[in-house]
Amino acid sequence: MTDDVTGAPPPAYGYLDIDADTARSASRIYWDDAAAEYQAEHGEFLGDSDFCWSPEGLRESDLRLLGEVAGRTVLEVGCGGAQCARWLRGQGARVVAFDLSSGQLAQARAYAASTGVDVPLVQADAMALPFADASVDVACSAFGAVPFVADSAAVMREVARVLRPGGRWVFSTTHPFVWCLPDDPDDNGLRVYHSYFDRRAYTEHDDQGRAVYTETHRTIGDRVREIVAAGLVLHDIIEPEWPAGQDRTWGQWGPRRGEYVPSTSIFVTSRPPAR
Ligand SMILES: C[S@@+](CC[C@H](N)C(=O)[O-])C[C@H]1O[C@@H](n2cnc3c(N)ncnc32)[C@H](O)[C@@H]1O
Predict the structure, then answer these.
(1) Where's the Methyltransferase type domain (predicted)?
(2) Ligand 1 close to Cβ of residue 168 (< 6 A)
(3) Would you tell me which of 98, 140, 164, 269 could form a disulfide with 122, CB atoms 3.0–4.6 Å apart?
(4) Number of structural domains, the chain?
(5) Distance from residue 146's CA to the centre of ligand 1 (Å)
(6) 125 CB near ligand 1 (under 6 Å)
(7) What is the spatial distance between Cα 160 and Cα 230, in angstroms, rounded to a whole number?
(8) What is the pLDDT of residues 154-197, one digit of tens each?
């Protein structure tokens, strides 16, 4: 998100009610264009075959939120460069990774070539998964799709549909609280300046008025309701504190603001077991 008070060059932006097609198209445009730069900026921190949940640097190798993955079929949602999928493959999982953006999937193929670790990649929209009912054991996402779609309830329903009974769905996304704050990791980012209750999407437009970037918002209660409405069980919401000694900033994530408020939330859910 670009802030209107930090001095960053102002794009044509605003908070709008957007439909699913507009959000999908904006995300395609943005992530196709940004993929190479995103990987150049964050690739080393993410690790080419590692599972990093968030800019705080939380790793699945430490948290083990997905449970045992060896021998399980795991779906990575909004995989970007598919770093997480390659780590899961190294843990013995059967992995399928998908993303909306052909630019991001091209980066994932380049990583496959450089690491020698290949995982099946699919181009798909998280709101309409091209996978059979009850076909995966575990689904996961590190900031993939959920912060960008117009209808995250549809993503919850789709993931619940493709999960086998008893399967886990764990996803990280922007912490709902930071919707109120300027997009700044420092002191300026510690001011409430926008309504937490405004569910309209932050949207940037190009000169032709085309939406070219969008981020969407749900309150913490909205997230819980969407998970429950999809028939999933919510086990935990992790709100990571900023780790001591981690100086690296990532957009609005950083040690200064991180001392006071969480910027990431990780939702740990599962589909109930069959009776
Ligand atoms: C912040 S990146 C995260 C990528 C990767 N998980 C990581 O940690 O680097 C967000 C990703 O979500 C993808 N994305 C956005 N909207 C999507 C959608 N509707 N369906 C699938 N992927 C989507 C983007 O293309 C992008 O690769």
Answers:
(1) 75-171
(2) no
(3) 98
(4) 1
(5) 8
(6) yes
(7) 6
(8) 999 999 999 999 999 999 999 999 999 999 999 999 999 999 99
| pTM beyond 0.85, yes or no | yes
Q: What angle do CA 157, 73, 115 make, to 5 degrees?
A: 115
Residue 263 lies in a domain: yes
Tell me if 210 is assigned to some domain. Answer: yes
Instruction: Tell me the C-alpha distance between 238 and 173, whole Å.
Output: 11
At 233, is the secondary structure helix, strand, or coil? strand
- Helix (H) or strand (E) holding 25, with range, is helix 20-46
In a domain? residue 218 = yes
Atom 23 in ligand 1: which residue has the minimum CA distance? 145
For ligand 1, atom 11: residue with the closest CA? 144
Ligand 1 in reach of 82 Cβ (< 6 A):
no
> pLDDT by residue (tens digit) across 195-225?
999 999 999 999 888 999 999 999 999 999 9
Question: Looking at the domain assignment, is residue 2 inside a domain?
Answer: no
